[in-house]
Write a structure and sequence with these properties.
321 residues; 6-stranded parallel β-sheet; globular
């Protein structure tokens, strides 16, 4: 059993582990996750069963999992809940280091002791005793079996995707930056995001070359628009990792978080199809390893001081890809 409760990006980042465990160790893999995210595993050819912990009382969940009689538990979430579940199943458990102390030192004292390794590579390090190795085939995203692909006419043209949302305010790109960027990009821009981003999308849709899909398309539809795009502009969020799973060129925009935390776009064979945009020499950054609902300094300069024009980066990333 592999444990990963949430969220979209974190689950996509477990896909190389699921694939390699299936191909190199066991072809009977169960996933323990949260019901909101089960579709990300439901459609994987490498997963036999998906169990959602929030579908059961805790006691019933433990009874169910004990009946499965797992040979091994891989805890890729590693929080208190996953640890308790693992202990109560009385089976061998392998987990990984979340480097929380080193991240805390970076956030509080700007002391960088973090390894220069992606989270995916640290996952694989934790599996070394099983002789499971990285196949270097990157991330996976699987559509639902009954997913009907969009057929809009713009899909036959060259376009870009702008990812508006993020889990925390301090990761989000503000309106003024989007307006500056989109107004100078010649390609059509598809706006994707959840219902929380509708007010932002309504403002941006006033720009002539935008196509607003925010709050009206499913995760699979957003992923499909990304898969068929020329490039993607995204903050540090789950859609960024979905873009990497399709090997798309990405301009990733970093606010309060850092690529050094190990969750930057991850590609096949360590190819580089990503440009990180960061505001350097900002003393308050990083202010959190995850994010806040408002800027602790009330200025959000990690986003507001980003570059005013993306075209030089667009030229570079499209030429390289």
């Amino acid at each position: 059993m592999i444990i990963r409760f949430s969220s979209i990006g974190d689950i996509v980042l477990t896909s190389p582990i699921v694939r390699c465990v299936y191909n190199q160790f066991s072809n009977n893999i169960h996933i323990l996750t949260k019901s909101n995210f089960r579709s990300l595993y439901d459609n994987s050819p490498y997963v036999s069963k998906v169990i959602c912990y929030d579908d059961y009382s805790f006691i019933d969940l433990i009874k169910l999992l004990r009946k499965e009689n797992y040979h091994l538990i891989l805890d890729l979430h590693k929080n208190l809940k996953s640890k308790i579940i693992s202990v109560l199943l009385l089976k061998k458990v392998i987990s990984f280091s979340k480097l929380n102390i080193k991240k805390w030192l970076y956030v509080k004292f700007k002391l960088d002791l973090l390894p220069s390794k992606h989270l995916v590579d640290r996952y694989f390090e934790s599996l070394s005793e099983l002789n499971i190795i990285n196949d270097n085939q990157g991330l996976n995203y699987f559509y639902k079996s009954d997913f009907l692909r969009p057929t809009e006419s713009f899909l036959k043209t060259k376009y870009a995707v702008a990812v508006l949302g993020a889990a925390h305010y301090t990761k989000t790109i503000p309106l003024i930056k989007w307006q500056q960027w989109i107004s100078k990009i010649e390609l059509p821009i598809i706006l994707v995001g959840g219902k929380a981003e509708i007010p932002l999308a309504n403002q941006l849709s006033k720009i002539q070359n935008t196509i607003n899909k925010v709050g009206i398309c499913s995760l699979d539809e957003s992923a499909y628009y990304i898969e068929n795009s020329a490039f993607v502009i995204s903050p540090d969020t789950g859609m960024m990792h979905i873009a990497a799973s399709f090997q798309k060129s990405i301009i990733s925009v970093w606010g309060n978080t850092l690529p050094q935390f190990g969750m930057y776009p991850y590609y096949v064979n360590n190819q580089i199809k990503n440009i990180n945009l960061e505001v350097s020499n900002l003393k308050c950054r990083p202010c959190s390893k995850i994010g806040f609902n408002k800027c602790p300094k009330n200025h959000h300069n990690c986003m507001n001081h980003q570059v005013n024009d993306l075209n030089q980066y667009i030229t570079k990333i499209t030429e390289e890809s």
